[in-house]
Specification:
Elements (H helix, E strand, L loop, with lengths): L1 E2 L5 E7 L2 E8 L4 E7 L6 H17 L4
Antiparallel strand pairs: 1-2, 2-3, 3-4
Amino acid sequence: MGFGYTGFIGHTGGDPGVVSLLFFDPKSGIGRVLLLNTNLSGKAGGAAMYKIWDTLAKYQHQL
């Protein structure tokens, strides 16, 4: 568990073929969890993951 430069509290992790991100924003009280069954060895996979993560952030106050 750690603090990011954004002030979020969270952790990332994974094993071969699995990626996970979990972060909580103590200011808003909102957390995001992303679990992917994929390998992010290439730039395209990482870009897709962050696009999903950013989309979650975009709509998090509406959910």
